[in-house]
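Example record

One chain of 122 residues, shown exactly as stored in the release files.
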Amino acid sequence: QVQLAESGGGLVQAGGSLRLSCAASGRTFSRSVRGWFRQAPGKEREFVAAIRWSVSSTMYADSVKGRFTISKDNAENTVYLQMNSLKPEDTAVYYCAAGARLGLRKDDYDYWGQGTQVTVSS
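Predicted structure tokens for this chain:
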């Protein structure tokens, strides 16, 4: 089992920044990929970014490229999502996920956190 706990969400004005954190515990060695997804009201959960733990390979959704950065802290077993130049359309619940392969589908991940709300006001 892998447990994931997100933090860092909140309310920010358009153009502002937030940094989300995802702390992992449990059998984390069994899941070498960490991803971020988001879900806005009435919409499907969508891929945002992912990182492979061992080699730091990353993937981003086109909608966040150049604005969001995913990174990790090996010692803290924590993944971060730095979000800059935020837009109202970035408003969503952001979920951290863990999986065994680098991918952008929900099915690529089998452990999920509870989510953290990000609200961007115009």
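Notes: The first strand starts at residue 2 and ends at 7.
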